[in-house]
Amino acid sequence: MRIDIISAVPELLSGPLDHSIIGRARDFGKVDIVIHDVRAYSKDKHKKVDDYPFGGGAGLVMTPQPIFDCIESLKKERTYDAVLFPTPDAVVLDQKMVNSFSLFENLIILCGHYKGVDQRVRDEIITHEFSIGDYVLSGGELPAMVLVDSIVRLIPGVIGDSESALDDSFQDGLLSAPVYTRPADFRGHKIPEVLASGNHEKIRKWRENKAIERTGKIRPDLLRNVIDK
Ligand code: 6GU
User: Fold this and answer.
1) How far does residue 117's CA lie from ligand 1's centre (Å)?
2) Looking at the chain, which terminus has fewer C-beta neighbours within 10 angstroms, N or C?
3) Rounded to the nearest whole angstrom, what is the distance from the C-alpha of residue 29 to the centroid of ligand 1?
């Protein structure tokens, strides 16, 4: 899989992509992540990538020219399955969407900054839009990282234990059961006995019950999805 990320603040993207699971996935050639500074494509003499909104209002809007040129140059090199745009005025990302994005071979993520991007970019180039929740962030870079992490961990071979990605919260529509590690007694707080019982069927049932209990308490809206299934 190849992911091209376009940003006016590419510095924000280094770090999260260089370590841990994503860093290893890149090192092992499971995913190619290429970051592009949209400023490099600006034909403005000051390399400007934003301008005042027509009709007035606060904030600056990213101009179409550098974005169109950048994406057109990428599309000359290969075919892309999707051009994704993180934006608060979109549907909220969920595991189902992530699962479907993880099947793409080549994808572009365009990070908007400032007040947004010119609507013509969204109309002409963007294929999918997503928000990561009902709150406001300063730009699309952090949501892009959220998306990349959620996708890359699904690529076969990226997570050592091949079952563990499927066990994630949300993968079955429920939150995960609690987990414990050594010691079995920490300052008098003991782990649930069943987990040390060696009885795999009992443990599976306990985890299932805990997942349902937790989901009902914290996210009853999700429980409804499971009951309806
Ligand atoms: Cl995708 N972008 C921005 N700027 N803010 C957000 C968001 C995205 N999702 C939630 N808030």
Assistant:
1) 13
2) C
3) 29
Of the candidates 141, 171, 143, 166, the residue with the CA atom closest to the CA atom of residue 158? 166
Q: How far apart are CA 206 and CA 194, in angstroms?
A: 8
Does residue 139's CB lie within 6 angstroms of at least one atom of ligand 1? yes
Q: Hey, whose CA ends up nearest to atom 7 of ligand 1? A: 88
Distance between Cα 145 and ligand 1 center (Å):
12
Could you tell me the domains of the chain? 2-152 (3.40.1280.10), 167-228 (1.10.1270.20)
For residue 227, pLDDT beyond 80: no
Please name the residue that has the structure tokens 């563990």. Answer: 164
DSSP state of 181: -
Q: Which two tokens stand for residue 55?
A: 């009709």
CA distance 179 to 160: 18
Convert the pLDDT of each residue in 57-91 to its tens digit. 999 999 999 999 999 999 999 999 999 999 999 99
Q: Look up the pTM and report it.
A: 0.94
User: Range with the lowest mean pLDDT among 6-15, 170-179, 212-221?
Assistant: 170-179
